Amino acid sequence: DTEVTQTPKHLVMGMTNKKSLKCEQHMGHRAMYWYKQKAKKPPELMFVYSYEKLSINESVPSRFSPECPNSSLLNLHLHALQPEDSALYLCASSLVPSSYEQYFGPGTRLTVT
Amino acid sequence: AQSVTQPDIHITVSEGASLELRCNYSYGATPYLFWYVQSPGQGLQLLLKYFSGDTLVQGIKGFEAEFKRSQSSFNLRKPSVHWSDAAEYFCAVGADSGAGSYQLTFGKGTKLSVIP
Hints:
The structure holds two protein chains of two kinds.
Chain A: E1 4-7, E2 10-13, E3 18-25, E4 31-37, E5 44-50, E6 53-57, E7 64-70, E8 73-79, E9 87-94, E10 103-104, E11 108-112
Parallel strand pairs in A: 2-11
Antiparallel strand pairs in A: 1-3, 3-8, 4-5, 4-9, 5-6, 7-8, 9-10, 9-11
Chain B: E1 3-5, E2 10-14, E3 19-21, E4 24-26, E5 32-38, E6 44-50, E7 56-58, E8 64-68, E9 73-78, E10 87-96, E11 102-106, E12 110-115
Parallel strand pairs in B: 2-12
Antiparallel strand pairs in B: 1-4, 3-9, 5-6, 5-10, 7-8, 8-9, 10-11, 10-12
């Protein structure tokens, strides 16, 4: 099973709302990633969790707050977002960080109004 | 720092025709190379990967890619394209950016359109 699941599939939120994106994998992977993808662009790395610890934060604004409650789950908490944060948010996982081979979820389409 | 170039932004082929998507990388050591495909509004699906060994690698959906170190290339090929292959294709290189910072660097992507 090489499946990464993400919920919700679509999310519309106002700039004052607080919402969360969820990602789950049951492949025993110990590295998990959040990416942001704008239309017609490649994914941009936001955060990397390695063995449940945050190892990379690509200078992401604090209105995005990641959380890794356990080795299977990854959350992205959203607060006070801006319209330019509207994008496809992709979660991925890999066996270990140095394996590079990442498996992606279907993404959450976020619209900030 | 590593980089990936996909020279073709958009390619259109007829169904049944052969396909080659170009990818050039820049990295000092032996790279880990990947091709991903993304249908509109979907996540990325891994097509194939190259780590070492045989320079011609086979992937899913009938795709193959050839690693050419002398040309710093990892081109994706398919002998006969199907309409369902229409999608965005991303080449990526995996590299350690330092201090154990293992990341994928993506090319800008090539959009494939297929004419029936």
